[in-house]
Amino acid sequence: LSKEAFDVVLMDLELPDSKGLESFLRINNAYPALPVIVLAGPHEEGLAFEAVSRGAQDYVVKGETSERTLGRVIRYAIERARLLNALRGLSLIDQLTGLYNRRGFMTLADQQVKLAIRTKRNLMLVLADVDGLKAVNDGFGHREGDLALIKTAEILKKAFRKSDVIARIGGDEFALLAIEASKDSHELLRERIRQNLEECNRAEKLRYTLSMSIGITFFEGVNPVTLAELLGLADQSLYADKSAKKSLKHA
Known about the structure:
Elements: E1 9-12, H1 21-30, E2 36-40, H2 45-53, E3 58-61, H3 67-88, H4 102-119, E4 123-130, H5 133-140, H6 142-159, E5 165-168, E6 173-179, H7 186-204, E7 212-219, H8 227-250
Parallel strand pairs: 1-2, 2-3
Antiparallel strand pairs: 4-6, 4-7, 5-6
Helix pairs in contact: 3-4, 5-6, 6-7
């Protein structure tokens, strides 16, 4: 790797001279711009998923992936890495949270939606609003409000994979695009976020209860769709979640 340029690395976790995840992390840390696809055995999917969460572009299960599918995975990994590397040179980062800002999200997410249509890949778009941020700012000061946003970013990063697109797109609004998400994963995701919120509220001993409203929409990679349409559907879901909370509060 240090002597030649490569477009992508296929890394087998089962090779005798491989140390599995440790070997991947060493390569990823040394060459962060180089896309890595992990090859895993049928009983190593958990380890492969961990590699994806730590920066691998994707993983495939040996013996269960056709040549055509592998070719598509490789093309997807190269194109996505190219986009990410291009974004690193632009002002697309939210200074407070370290996530993408609105411009960064719209730029990368639009490319991912178009890519998903071409490759028939699933996407899940999530909108999240911090509940009562104005009350936190008014009651405890803007420094405490900034801390709430930072904690929210940490909670969302723990709930999603490193390969997903996570951004703060407004004052109290976050957007997340989960790549290759299964349609039935939204309830698991909501539960993961809820647990992360509970852990944060318990461990941080905040002077308020940090909570958020969630809106989710899913794209199956079949019918053409625009990012604006997905955002509209996710916004409707977010509004429904907020309305349900208000109804429960006044019940």
